[in-house]
């Protein structure tokens, strides 16, 4: 049993709640309540799992973090398979440099992924192989390639589903590229993944209710409120926390 536990720990599939050596470097989230619960902010590198329903404010929560990630590293932000069209005005208004932002829609923009890989000397044969994948496989492949390239500060992915093995590959790629990988999952997908941070989001009249499910070097935390009223007063006053995505009509 001891040998099995040692093996799981080495593979980062198991860790001790009080282990300081596994603590991550934090980047301020822009929300004091969240920073306090996460000992300074969101992970600068590694895999971040966000369990949430779509359109309740999950991307809006990350905008200050993404702005810092992009500004400090001067590297790309990559959005893969977002569930709706992203609003350029909203992203620019949050301080993001749109010239350093890439949106990949698997099945429609395979060439975009190939261009990122080509910029960092990936083989043409490997780029062509992505076209043979399913849409889900293309999304995961694109995320892994972007992370490994070293040119991306943060990659955000909305997969239809993700397995333990796929999450582990993304975590290793994020470590290799010194990047953070954000995976948005439907709240019904409860499979525990090998991640640096896992949180669950629920709507709240003043912003979001956040539950920390897993964090390296710490224990899960009770649900708490993140107040978005200062940053998004109109949305909070109306009792919603909408996404920076352009809706039909």
From TrEMBL:
Gene3D superfamilies: P-loop containing nucleotide triphosphate hydrolases. InterPro entries: P-loop_NTPase, UCP037290. This is Recombinase RecA.
């Amino acid at each position: 049993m001891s040998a099995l536990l040692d093996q799981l720990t080495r593979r980062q599939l198991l860790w001790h709640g009080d282990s300081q050596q596994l603590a991550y470097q934090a980047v301020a989230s822009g929300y004091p309540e969240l920073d306090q619960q996460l000992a300074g902010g969101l992970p600068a590198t590694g895999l971040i799992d966000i369990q949430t329903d779509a359109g309740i404010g999950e991307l809006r929560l990350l905008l200050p973090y993404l702005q810092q990630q992009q500004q400090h590293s001067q590297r790309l932000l990559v959005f893969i398979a977002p569930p709706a069209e992203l609003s350029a005005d909203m992203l620019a208004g949050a301080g993001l440099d749109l010239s350093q932002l890439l949106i990949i829609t698997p099945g429609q923009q395979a060439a975009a992924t190939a261009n990122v890989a080509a910029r960092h000397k990936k083989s043409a044969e490997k780029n062509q192989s992505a076209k043979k994948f399913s849409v889900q496989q293309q999304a995961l492949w694109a995320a892994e390639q972007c992370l490994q390239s070293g040119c991306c500060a943060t990659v955000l992915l909305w997969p239809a589903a993700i397995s333990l093995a796929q999450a582990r590959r993304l975590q290793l790629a994020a470590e290799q590229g010194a990047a953070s990988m954000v995976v948005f999952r439907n709240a019904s997908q409860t499979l525990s993944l090998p991640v640096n941070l896992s949180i669950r989001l629920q709507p709240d009249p003043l912003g979001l209710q956040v539950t920390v499910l897993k964090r390296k070097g710490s224990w899960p935390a009770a649900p708490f409120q993140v107040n978005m009223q200062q940053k998004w007063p109109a949305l909070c006053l109306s009792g919603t926390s909408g996404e920076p995505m352009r809706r039909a009509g």
